[in-house]
Amino acid sequence: MRFLPWGRCRKGFNELLHSYSFIGHSAEFLNLHHTCMDASTQLAAYFKSHPDVAGKVADFNADADRLFHLDLTAGNKELDKTIVSNPEKLDKWVFGKLADNGCKYGIGGYMENRTIYAGIPLFDNGVDEPRFLHLGVDIWAAAGTAIYAPLPGKIHSFNDNNNHGDYGPTIILEHDLDGLLLYSLYGHLSRKDLKGLRVDDPIGINQKIGSFGAIAENGHWPPHLHFQLMFDMEGQQGDYPGACRFSEKEKYLKNIPDPQLILQFPKAVNA
User: Fold this and answer.
1) CA atoms of 216 and 239, how far apart (whole Å)
2) In DSSP terms, which residues pair with 175 in a beta bridge?
């Protein structure tokens, strides 16, 4: 099944509605109907019809590894400003939680209201509505943990977003899924992962593309991967917002599907 961009197929769908009585044209109608789904529905349909197409993002073994959900919202009363504002203290809290619960990986973040961003200029300048709504999924694990491309594609862009609280080293891949363009973003990597990269270089499924960066190079966060999917890069290179204003939620939901469609992680032990 080849997919059409939603704007183009909606126009064609409306034209067909006005041009046909549909008597004797059911096949054409159904074909257009299938190509005229919004992008998130198209993506879900693609993975449903290709259940084995996605590879891994990390070396997670569902039979042996356990996930712990890390809550970084105001609802988590364990986190206070003295911990959140100090990367080393936050690192101790994150990996203490994983160790205490026998978990190799932490998980969380998609469409989570990250109030821990309060006071970080990148997200909260004290004047405009803050950007607290987290748009990707965070996978927390030790620095040096390997990262893989879950789909075949090519390098779209890369950059070292070297600002406090930012992605640090970032790689963005482009994937063509039977006509549906999808981009995957990998943030908080190691700087060495950017060496030798070239735009448009092909990337194979399950090819190692990087590793979790240490605090000093990954934007000053405990080691983790920010994994995010986008349908439209909106002209950006090497970067795309990983958090937005709550008032923008509906806009970004249309462009950023749930990474769990690819990850297929089991429930966390504390879910």
Assistant:
1) 19
2) 182
Q: Is 0.90 topped by the overall pTM?
A: no
200: left (phi > 0), else alpha (psi -120 to 50), else beta?
left
**In Å, how far from its chain's centre is CA 21?**
43
Nearest 5 degrees, angle CA 69-CA 40-CA 18? Answer: 160
Q: What is the dihedral of CA 157, 162, 165, 168, to 10 degrees?
A: 50
Q: Token pair for residue 51?
A: 């259940």
The pLDDT tens digits of the residues spanning 143-200 come to 999 999 999 999 999 999 999 889 999 999 999 999 999 999 999 999 999 999 999 9
Measure Cα distances from 238 to 125, 172, 174, 267 in Å. 23, 6, 12, 31
Residue 177's closest CA among 264, 49, 263, 63?
49
Token readout for 46 is 């693609």
SS3 state of residue 1: coil
- 92, two tokens: 């101790």
Cα torsion through 184, 215, 267, 231, rounded to 10 = -10
Question: Does an H or E element contain 126, and which?
Answer: none
| Phi, then psi, of 136 in degrees rounded to 5 | -115, -170
Dist CA 30 CA 22 (whole Å): 10
Over the Cα atoms of the chain, what is R_g? 20
